[in-house]
Amino acid sequence: MLSFIRKRAVASLISLVGLIVMVFFLSRLTGDPAALFLPVEASAEMKDQFRELHGLNDPLLVQFGRYVGDVLTGDLGESLRKARPALDVVLEAFVWTLWLAIITMTLVTGAAIVVGSLAAFRAGGFFDRLSSIISLLGASVPDFWIAIVAIVVFSVNLGWLPTSGTGSLLHWILPICVLFIRPFGIIVQVVRGSMIGALSSAYVKTARAKGVRSGPIIFVHALRNAMLPVITVIGDQAASLLNGAVIVETIFGFPGVGKLMIDSILQRDFNVVLAAILVTALAIFLMNLLIDLAYALLDPRIRH
Amino acid sequence: MAEHLLEVRNLSVEFHTAAGVVKAVRDISYHLDRGETLAILGESGSGKSVSSSAIMNLIDMPPGRISSGEILLDGVDLLKMPAHERRAVNGRRIAMIFQDPLSHLNPVYTVGWQIREALTTHGTAAATARAEALRLLTRVGIPEPERSLDKYPHEFSGGQRQRVMIAMALALRPDLLIADEPTTALDVTVQAEVLALLEELQQETGMAVLIITHDLGVVAEIADRVVVMEKGVLVEAGTVREVYRNPQHPYTQKLIAAAPGKGAMHEPAARTEPVLSVRDVRKRYGAFEALKGVSFDLMPGETMAVVGESGSGKSTLARVLLRLDEPDAGSAQWKGRDLFTLSPAELYKLRRDLQMVFQDPTQSLNPRMTVYQLISEAWLIHPDILPRAKWRDRVAELLVQVGLGPEHMGRYPHQFSGGQRQRIAIARALALEPQLIICDEAVSALDVSVQAQVIALLDRLRREMGIAFIFIAHDLPVVRDFADHVMVMQRGKVVEFGTVRDVFEAPREGYTRALLAAGLDPDPDVQAAHRAARLKRA
Prior knowledge:
The complex is a heterodimer of chains A (about 300) and B (about 550).
Chain A: H1 2-29, H2 33-37, H3 44-53, H4 60-72, H5 86-121, H6 126-140, H7 143-157, H8 170-199, H9 202-210, H10 214-242, H11 246-251, H12 257-266, H13 270-298, H14 300-303
Helix pairs in contact in A: 1-13, 5-6, 5-8, 5-10, 5-13, 6-8, 7-8, 8-10, 9-10, 10-13, 12-13
Chain B: E1 6-17, E2 20-32, E3 37-41, H1 50-55, E4 64-73, E5 76-77, H2 83-89, E6 94-97, H3 101-104, H4 111-120, H5 126-139, H6 145-148, H7 158-169, E7 176-180, H8 188-205, E8 208-213, H9 216-222, E9 225-230, E10 233-239, H10 240-245, H11 250-258, E11 276-285, E12 288-298, E13 303-307, H12 314-321, E14 329-334, E15 337-338, H13 344-350, E16 354-357, H14 361-364, H15 371-381, H16 391-401, H17 418-430, E17 436-440, H18 448-465, E18 468-473, H19 476-482, E19 485-490, E20 493-499, H20 500-505, H21 510-518, H22 524-537
């Protein structure tokens, strides 16, 4: 088990190194960094000064070494707009996004497993058809549209919920509900398909021959076997939330990392953008490691 | 008190499929008493498993429907029971074991957990269940039972897994055990052990056993009475001896006549110049040594059977000879050239001389190609054999040769039965006019009556076309009917080699004798004598 974790961690580390290299070249090779980092109206003199200050005239390899050193010591530069370390700015926003993602994905996973499993248990039945229609709609309807409609209905017309911001628990309800819909639609479909296979398997027949009740047959015997493909999809969906639900966060004025990235790009706060990419990537690597661990926990054949 | 423990009366089951209603069993009746063993004998598609699924309430409805009949357990109709009472019967009063224990055990839970579940589901306290699971595993003969409780199904061998299934099924001492082909996937020696265990346990608990099988040998070994099924209809019933000695129905007569191992044995001609000469072949997969130096000679037009249990290396030998896997050492002289040192280009040319027929024709035939495409594909790869204009005629000829017809050319594999598909696979091998065909368990998956036909076909091809065969099999009676020479393998080594008569009638090695003794004879009297001899030895 430990060697399994170590192997996975090393594999993730390699990708992480690749990412750091990419982020560096993204900032150095897509044009003049001075032009990227400084405001459009900066003079040629300011640009020269900027280059000198940040060592942009040094050979690329030297710059890269310095950059890696900075990354390893957690120094990702200053936010030009907020005059604070970029990392602090990003982490502040990332905590909001992380909570939003954790709460949403927990709700999505729980609901999708129950709905998908029950749909599979009576495949072709009324509940199956109903859940198929709902999940298909959920997976297809664009979230910005739902977000706007939800604001119009629940905030403007009914006045039940705030339109945007973060002041109270009520502020969380609309973003979570909107972000819930698409992953739920997708995961229900995967759970259903995977569970239909598991429920028609030979070991489920054995369980029925043992006289095991329907509940444990679905949620103990079949589900654990059916979860492997589902976990992969849960990972994908969680990753897209961790990346920052850019549109939904922006619409609801939610101070997450997605909104921060959009704002920083518009304000040309390039250090913050790079820091945000690095932080979210690190989070996704950690999550993939967790998913690999979940695989091993669920299936003894992977452990051995 | 009811007359019988189990009574199936006028049971009919149908399945509603896209192609229409399939009547899987029609109006069948049988009964079973405590302490008795009843065998349901039938080939694939006979519906022999359907009635037991109905007894266990395992038929999915829809598409299944029980259109008539009753299933009485101690006089109470299982089909009319409320769902919760019905569920309580499964596992407690009736239990079941299956053909393939690996897929029938849940891969993600320990065997200890799965045995405990059988107990706790019906109300046993968790602490008691733990002790009981240990007792059961010990009883069925699992080594290191304490540690084995925490192991997963994939960590056991096939025979051990079936023992675990048995432990689980008998956890609550059911009145009736249904065993659906319980030993079909096992080696002969393991099969004998598992059947013996079942009998012992039956004597201990006095349960009734309903065994579903296609194997007359299993019937002769374990059953008191037998019912024979054909196409959903029960055609014959009686004691095992009655049915075997004096079968009434033509189907039963055909089935008994088709049982292999009764014909005259081949008398091979004196050995001369070998066509294939194999010396000291070795192959390892990681730490596992699959072949530990295998040598033999094969004469032209001769059939050499390779027998042995799983893990003996017989399939590895086939793969290495055809260079589907590369050998680690050794040589294989084929007409003066070493197969193992040929370059890929030379090998490619030589491939047409050496063909292979696999066990499962469903998997080895591409389902999206017609029979014509499947057979003529060989000429697409080796265009020098036959000009395209003659392909159609030659395919027709080959189909006739293997007992099919030219009208089958445009059809796809799924439109054929298992035996017909194996004939197509043989026709495909013949298309290249090979001099050696390696058959890896080529008839193992076929019904007995079909098996006999395919063997007869191979034997005719050997005589008429002078093709040599390496016939890999675990089924000894089939080997006895077909082989000239027999090579017995155990753990990657040849333990005995001789003419079929020598090996079957005067085996030199203990391992060969054990293999032969473990084989089951379809004749209940012969089998009874085997048993008596076995008990005396024990």
